Amino acid sequence: MLLNQLNAAASPLTPEQVQKLQGLVAELNPIQQAWVSGYLAGNANSAAIAGGVATNAGEAATLTILYGSQTGNAKGVAMQLQAQAQARGLAVNLVSMADYKPTALKKEQFISIVVSTYGEGEPPEDAEALYEFLATKKAPKLEGVKIAVLGLGDSSYEFFCQTAKDFEERLVKLGAEVILQRADLDVDYEDHSDAWINGALDAFEPDLKAQQTNNNVVSMPMTAGAASQYNKQNPFTAELLTVQKITGRDSTKDVRHIEISLEGSDIQYQPGDSLGVYFLNDETKVDKVLATLELDGETQITLGGEALSLRDALIERLELTQSYPGFVEKYAAVTENAELLALVADKAAMREYIEARQTYDVIFQNPAKVSAQELVDSLRKVQPRLYSIASSQAEVEDEVHLTLAVVEFDGFGEQHLGGCSGYLGRFAEEGATIKVFTEHNDNFRLPADDNTPVIMIGPGTGIAPFRAFLQEREARDAQGNNWLFFGNPHFTQDFLYQTEIQGYLKSGLLTKVDVAWSRDQAQKVYVQDRIREQGEQLFAWLEQGAHVYICGDASRMAKDVHQALVDVIKAQGGKDDDSAEQYLKELRSANRYQKDVY
Prior knowledge:
The protein is of the alpha/beta class and 598 residues long. Helix content is 40%, strand content 20%. It contains 23 helices and 20 strands. It has a six-stranded antiparallel sheet with strand order 11-8-15-6-7-12, with helices on one face. The chain has a five-stranded parallel sheet with strand order 2-1-3-4-5, sandwiched between helices. α21 crosses α22.
């Protein structure tokens, strides 16, 4: 009703603002909508009392917090920084880097950067434009600007927190002053981010309070009820409803369709969001760890101030699959293992060593005399795995669906399974309880206008969010055309959701489907080849306003698809390389070119 009134009435909002408001309202439950209503009313009233003076980005007494977030972690820390700054009475401007105009930098005096790194030291999608701008000649001089940078990353990757390092370096080259040492935090960042936030605010506060006046501060308190009670720190205990293999008997891949009940929770999600899943380690391998190290699983240890048995900690709380340098370093120091200590001194050798091994392997291949607590202190806490949601709540209501490939390989005489994919795909039984939470991804959203055409490129399990997109478009009776590119090795073994896709084609919801079966003929064919083959029509869709989405492997597929799009734009649009790249940049700036890659 409210949205219809917005469209019908003589609204002071622009059409774009109405669309954004519609998207926000659709994401909120009634309690959250009431809170936002009160917030806006209070904000407007405060502005009126102050004579119409409001806090804008760049005013002298404002701390601008810019975040770049791939999975939501950096955004979460940035929001904590905002809340704690407001609690101190400081004026704050919290902005996603995707929404920040780089030219506003010249107006800033106090900037905090919170940014993640993914892949091979690459910035998250929403940080790319600002990241690139800072390296150009257009970037303004920043003498007198004070900055503090926090990086989030994963030390199992070579270029750990590289994006944060790059941001700080580029800002300093422009003249900015670092007022707090940069922190580069690993996946267990929650244990350390609070200390950095307090340090940053201690550094910014004196100058901010010296300059701000009552007239230019509108600081509204954060309210705990503004979000679901379930999150990464407080996951919902859900029931595992269905685990169904959806690849053929002779497939080289083991892909599972997972259905999970959210009944009894207040969890709401949108197509494009991810589900965080906590998992249990393989009990057989945990017992082998105990036997290898000659430890008693009932020994009491302390983890995060909590006492529990060593075996329970290894099964439920600690990372034993994904290998990372930090464990090797700590384990080498405790065991005084000469070979491992040599690896610590040689980063290249360390990378090669952990690439082929899980944490289990390091222990099995290097048995030693360690205490239960020493082992626990060498390991990091297990982190939830994030999966693109493969369903729309408009279709499945109190459920959430996933499309999950079981990670599996052999090595060192052991069968290796991915921690979470092995648990969900092989060990957990239907009816089991699992702890889950949702991560919103505002950088991977369907267009607000249901008449907008959509191009979806998702080989393999990259089809997951597009299954959600199609369910949502059908539920909304969206009239915009939908085009799906899908690929996998074999038609007969690997056509994920074949019946559903054919049904959507028959009903007309799917306008076009182009498939690529890489191993069904002598010459390998991938989705990027189909994109080039369909170049004329694809470019016509782009010229007509289509949004294009990519989901799947970041290291190769996404780059190959990007190049295919560049080639199509060059060939069909009569552009050179630079102009074609600029065309895609403009699409990205308009939220018409979005990626969910991993």
